[in-house]
């Protein structure tokens, strides 16, 4: 469901047809609602993922501050709970967000952190 939400959010961003974009957005919201329910039940394995999904939704909606806050929370929570691969993904997606808004310094910082995390995790094909 977390991956379904991420894919749906990305599809929303890149859909050229408004009807297709709406369908992807609706699917994304449904998946995010499910993850929110898991987080409300105090599942510690999804808190960082929920922050990442909220960041991606905010980014698509053009809500820059909210997106950046959630990216930061996703990265920090993944780090605190030992989810190195999710810390890497959160940094990678934050980097893409900052690239999209033209903040080269933040883009580079997050990209370097993503590469470091992916390397530590052993994802050599990714780096």
Main beta sheet strand tally, sense and closure: none
Task: Provide a count of the helices.
Answer: 6
Compute the average pLDDT: 96
Number of strands: 0
Helix content: over 70%
Order of helices and strands: HHHHHH
- Proportion in β-strands: under 5%
Net shape: globular
Taking the alpha carbons of the first and last residues, their distance comes to: 26 Å
From the alpha carbons, calculate the radius of gyration and give it in angstroms: 14 Å
Low-confidence stretches: none
Structural class: mainly alpha
Describe what you observe in this structure.
The chain is 81% helix and 0% strand. The chain has 127 residues and is mostly helical. Helix 5 packs antiparallel against helix 6. The radius of gyration is 14 Å and the shape is globular. The protein starts with a helix and ends in a 6-residue tail after the last helix.
SSE layout and pairing:
Layout: H1 2-14, H2 18-40, H3 47-60, H4 64-80, H5 84-101, H6 104-121
Question: Summary?
Answer:
With 127 residues, the chain is an all-alpha fold.
Offer a few descriptive terms.
127 residues; 6 helices
């Amino acid at each position: 469901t977390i991956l379904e939400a991420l894919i749906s959010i990305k599809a929303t961003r890149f859909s050229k047809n408004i009807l297709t974009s709406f369908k992807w957005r609706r699917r994304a919201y449904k998946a995010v609602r499910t993850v929110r329910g898991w987080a409300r039940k105090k599942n510690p394995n999804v808190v960082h993922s929920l922050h990442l999904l909220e960041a991606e939704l905010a980014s698509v909606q053009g809500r820059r501050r909210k997106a950046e806050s959630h990216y930061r929370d996703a990265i920090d929570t993944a780090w605190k709970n030992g989810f190195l691969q999710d810390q890497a993904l959160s940094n990678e997606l934050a980097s893409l967000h900052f690239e999209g808004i033209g903040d080269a310094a933040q883009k580079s910082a997050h990209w370097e952190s993503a590469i470091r995390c992916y390397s530590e995790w052993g994802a050599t094909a990714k780096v």
